[in-house]
């Protein structure tokens, strides 16, 4: 699992600024494209970026590196006096790393990926953008900033997957480790993950419609309407019933039910004697559904679960959906009949959650160029292992993790199993908080994590 040793030539370029009682340093450095020999036909380096905050008077505090959720999301652009960052800066210098392919770290789009030859070569290239490579980048940054001295790490959601890989791959680089809503299964196929997330997503849908019962009638109307009537989003693509259901992604957040309820406000009007969806509604829906700013999220969503021991994902979320009839949909050509039949069978309406389907790559204009590549990645089998159960069973790094019983994205029971597999991990279990508790309850979450270790 150890990265292949390479001479990176990593001269650090740092710019320093003053902001509200803090020093803000912006670091640029370089790292190899491929640490693991996955992409032997191409070499070279990537330009990577991290932003570091230091509170006045805390310049001798230890460093903490933050791994953002995702995959495919840049580190948040946070002000140092707001959110969880304000609490972290009481204890640490905080380094916000833009993971490779995001933000200022050689951001990837379709043109950048397709420059790498055949579909197989492009898939090999993208295999270099998972948690194992992100951790290897962090190690280059750590050594550039502080030599052999270890630092602390905090991972939110997918960032927790990165921290778990860090504990497996380079524990000598860590002084402490903290995870919020991001303890992955160490060895299960993606199918097992999605079986559990569909169940939790269905439960969250029931809670949503119990709180806002009129929204279920609205959702049924819109879905059946979209099967019969062509409605287009501002980018010119069609809003299908299946795509409409993807709005459920927000339900996993603390205030996600309110976000979806507000989105469904007054969506229908009479236009030239026909009932149509309001342009304002279509505008808002288009903004929520588009992945133009985070294409890697869709492309790598299932790849972050793939390992040599589990094999290809094979469009896991799409296959597993067939096991849950409440999430099934008729083709658009069938009109509204299928939806009505489902309703008569007693199935409540169900929005999907953090599930990526083939249709994402045909329906979303920003993802269409990735369609063939996404299919190639789905059936790729030569993945390296991401986690070392043996290393984790003998872990010596102090580590604590928030685990949420209501988590819609990272299944609670799998996180608990992993917590038991990491020696010395202190689990902090919460019955009501949701996946984004670091954002909504940041001070509480961090203070309990810091106290636990």
Description:
This protein has 453 residues and is an alpha/beta fold. The chain has 2 domains: 13-185 and 387-452, 3-Layer(aba) Sandwich (Rossmann fold), CATH 3.40.50.1820; 190-378, no CATH class. The chain has 19 helices and 11 strands. It has helices spanning 83-88, 110-114, 119-126, 131-146, 158-169, 190-211, 213-228, 241-245, 256-263, 279-289, 295-300, 316-321, 337-344, 360-363, 371-378, 389-393, 412-421, 437-440, 442-452, and strands at 13-19, 22-32, 45-55, 63-67, 93-98, 151-156, 174-180, 268-271, 274-277, 399-404, 426-430. The strands form 2 sheets. The chain has a 9-stranded mixed β-sheet, sandwiched between helices. A two-stranded antiparallel ribbon has the order 8-9. The protein starts with 12 loop residues before the first strand and ends with a helix. 47% of the residues are buried.
The top level CATH class name of the largest domain: Alpha Beta
Uncertain runs: 4-8, 334-340
Strand content: 15-25%
Radius of gyration based on Cα positions: 22 Å
| Head-to-tail CA distance between termini | 27 Å
Q: What name goes with the CATH superfamily of the largest domain?
A: Alpha/Beta hydrolase fold, catalytic domain
Derived structural class: alpha/beta
Instruction: Count up the helices.
Output: 19
> What count of structural domains?
2
Largest sheet: 9 strands, mixed
**Average pLDDT value?**
93
- Give, in spatial order, the strands making up the sheet with the most strands: 1-2-3-5-4-6-7-10-11
Helical residue percent? 25-40%
């Amino acid at each position: 699992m150890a990265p292949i040793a390479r001479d990176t030539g990593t001269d650090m370029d740092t710019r320093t600024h003053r902001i509200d009682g803090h020093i803000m340093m912006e670091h640029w450095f370089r790292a190899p494209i491929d640490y693991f020999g996955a992409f032997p036909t191409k070499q070279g380096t990537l330009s990577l970026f991290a932003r570091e905050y230091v509170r006045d008077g805390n310049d001798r505090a230890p460093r903490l590196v933050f791994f953002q959720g995702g995959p495919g999301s840049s580190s948040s652009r946070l002000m140092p006096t707001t959110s969880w960052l304000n609490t972290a800066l009481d204890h640490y210098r905080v380094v916000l790393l833009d993971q490779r392919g995001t933000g200022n770290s050689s951001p990837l789009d379709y043109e950048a990926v397709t420059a790498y030859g055949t579909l197989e070569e492009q898939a090999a290239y993208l295999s270099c953008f998972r948690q194992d490579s992100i951790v290897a980048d962090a190690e280059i940054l750590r050594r550039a900033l502080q030599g052999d001295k270890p630092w602390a790490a905090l991972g939110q959601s997918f960032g927790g997957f990165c921290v778990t890989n860090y504990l497996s791959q380079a524990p000598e680089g860590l002084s402490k480790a903290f995870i919020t809503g991001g303890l992955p299964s160490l060895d299960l196929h993606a199918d097992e993950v999605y079986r559990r997330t569909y169940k939790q997503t269905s439960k969250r849908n029931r809670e949503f419609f119990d709180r806002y019962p009129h929204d279920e009638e609205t959702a049924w109307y819109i879905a059946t309407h979209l099967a019969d009537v062509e409605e287009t989003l501002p980018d010119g693509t069609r809003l299908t019933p299946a795509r409409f259901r993807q709005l459920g992604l927000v339900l996993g957040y603390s205030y996600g039910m309110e976000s979806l309820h507000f989105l469904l406000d007054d969506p229908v009007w009479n236009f030239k004697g026909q009932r149509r969806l309001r342009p304002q509604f279509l505008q808002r829906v288009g903004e929520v559904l588009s992945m133009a700013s985070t294409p890697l999220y869709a492309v790598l969503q299932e790849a972050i679960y793939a390992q040599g021991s589990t094999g290809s994902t094979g469009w896991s979320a799409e296959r597993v959906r067939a096991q849950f009839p409440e999430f099934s949909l008729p083709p658009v050509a069938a009109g509204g009949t299928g939806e009505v039949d489902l309703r008569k069978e007693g199935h409540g309406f169900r929005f999907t959650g953090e599930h990526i389907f083939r249709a994402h790559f045909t329906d979303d204009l920003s993802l269409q160029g990735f369609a063939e590549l996404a299919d190639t990645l789905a059936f790729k089998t030569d993945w390296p292992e991401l986690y070392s159960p043996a290393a984790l069973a003998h872990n010596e790094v102090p580590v604590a993790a928030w685990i949420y019983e209501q988590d819609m994205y990272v299944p609670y029971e799998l996180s608990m199993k992993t917590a038991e597999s990491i020696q010395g991990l202190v689990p902090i279990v919460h019955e009501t908080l949701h996946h984004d508790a670091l954002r909504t309850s940041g001070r509480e979450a961090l203070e309990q994590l810091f106290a636990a270790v």
